[in-house]
Amino acid sequence: MTTATVYVVDDDPDSLRATGRLLRAAGLPVSLHASGAELCAALPPGAAGCLVTDLDMPGLDGLALQAELSRAGQVLPVVFLT
């Protein structure tokens, strides 16, 4: 059984750490990533959980990241932050 994880993507290091701390304090498994490309490289096939991502980032922004994951067959619910 795969553990559901909250994947957090944000290019702002302070926001990334703060969001990670908040989710961990709620008892959730968290995986932090500084960019969409970093998440795409690290995300295991068939990952379970959800994605919390910044909407406005350099490179893959939040919407482009969602589209890229969908093309790769990674279907995760997404919460966009801005």
Q: What's the average pLDDT?
A: 94
Beta-strand percentage? 15-25%
Query: Strand order within the widest sheet?
Result: 2-1-3-4
Specify Rg, calculated over alpha carbons.
12 Å
- Unreliable spans are none
Shape label: globular
Question: What is the chains' assembly state?
Answer: single chain
- In which range does the helix fraction lie? 25-40%
What is the helix tally?
3
Overall strand count: 4
Question: Helix/strand-derived class?
Answer: alpha/beta
- Major pleated sheet: 4 strands, parallel
Secondary-structure element sequence? EHEHEHE
Give the N-terminus to C-terminus distance in angstroms.
Answer: 33 Å
Helix and strand topology:
Elements (H helix, E strand, L loop, with lengths): L4 E5 L3 H13 L4 E4 L2 H7 L6 E6 L7 H10 L6 E4 L1
Parallel strand pairs: 1-2, 1-3, 3-4
Written account of the structure:
The protein is α/β, with parallel strands linked by helices and 82 residues long. Helix content is 37%, strand content 23%. The protein is built from three helices and four strands, in the order E-H-E-H-E-H-E. It starts with a strand and ends with a strand.
In short:
The protein is of the alpha/beta class. Helices cover 37% and strands 23% of the residues.
What descriptors fit this protein?
alpha/beta; 82 residues; 4 strands; 3 helices
